[in-house]
Design the sequence.
């Protein structure tokens, strides 16, 4: 019986450690933008372990949303483009994701 209890306790530790490791794997990573600075179109590439709809938002440096779109993503590498018509020249932040799974980076609009 003591050996059985020891085995059960060790299994619990392994399961908890595996759950922590899984929780730390980012759902989105490797966000790359080009060209930067951008004029008419901003291209995005992001790696995802998610599939389904995500929100892509462009914020000005005061935090105001100047563009927001929903796009479908697949698990793996995703490429898309955003038209920047009507957005003034300046520095912005693009955020992509859903819920707690969000990545962001800055870019310049000419």
Sequence:
């Amino acid at each position: 019986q003591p050996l059985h209890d020891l085995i059960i306790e060790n299994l619990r530790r392994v399961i908890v450690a595996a759950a922590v490791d899984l929780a730390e794997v980012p759902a989105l990573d490797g966000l790359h933008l080009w060209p930067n600075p951008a004029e008419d179109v901003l291209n995005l590439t992001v790696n995802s372990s998610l599939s389904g709809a995500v929100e892509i938002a462009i914020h000005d440096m005061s935090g105001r949303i100047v563009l927001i779109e929903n796009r479908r993503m697949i698990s793996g590498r995703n490429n898309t483009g955003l038209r920047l018509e009507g957005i003034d020249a300046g520095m912005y932040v693009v955020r992509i994701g859903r819920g707690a799974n969000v990545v962001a980076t800055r870019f310049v609009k000419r």
About this structure: Helices lie at 2-23.
